[in-house]
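INFO batch 0412 | record 1 of 1 | parsing
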Amino acid sequence: MKGSGRWFTIGLVTSWYSSNIGVLLLNKYLLSNYGFKYPIFLTMCHMMACSLLSYVAIAWMKMVPLQTIRSRAQLLKISCLSLVFCSSVVGGNVSLRYLPVSFNQAVGATTPFFTAVFAYLMKEKMESWITYLTLIPVVTGVIIASGGEPSFHMFGFIICISATAARAFKSVLQGKLLTAEGEKLNSMNLLLYMAPIAVAFLIPATLIMEENVVAITLALARDDIKIIWYLLINSAMAYLVNLTNFLVTKHTSALTLQVLGNAKGAVAVVISILIFRNPVSVTGMLGYILTVIGVILYSESKKRNKGEP
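INFO prediction complete | emitting tokens
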């Protein structure tokens, strides 16, 4: 029984890594190498898949109990979270048009810095001075990596930083808005409600900013039917990222999740360099390593502070 449980956990972690890294690499391939330059439409496909598959998983398969929205105020809070959520995903996808995955991951590793900043500004909580000190290598590493990045693109960098900040803002905002006992939702139910709202935001944005994208996609499909399969697989993987994240969080310890999370970005960087052959510099890699070390120190500091009486 213990052996089967171990294999189940290994399978979950493998699925988590595969879906996270797979959707990132396929996004990069579609938006940069394949030439499908429609990140808002791509994000809308992701959110449509998350809407449909969340409903199947919760309403039909009963993977988790369905939690209902109890008030207009709660719906408004979820709508605010959804807007920030889809903004961060769109920003991340847009940045992949201009930046290699390796540098995208280096910038994304600064999430703890923005989380600490927003938590302080929104008076959610103060961290210890040691925790704030650990953020210095996080930021310094990205500055070094930026200076040594052969494929640096200013617009892509600004969008990537903005998407990272939005992701951190969403996590802090979620902790602040959905605090009442009756308003707390697990991540699966939150996605069930956020994804359709995100689709409602993204449809007009797609129609205005990426005009005729559906007709263009259909025209591409007539020449190369693989684009439809790429979009379907990519969208399904976007949902699997959320599903496997929920399951790994449920079936592993906080420490295991922390270690696996820190390693996942490094694995994605190595695989992306092997696949896309983007040029890297020693300075850029040293900057990324420094950022990862800072993130590990930050996580360790947070864990120790949490354990203090």
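INFO post-check: The mean pLDDT is 90.
INFO record closed
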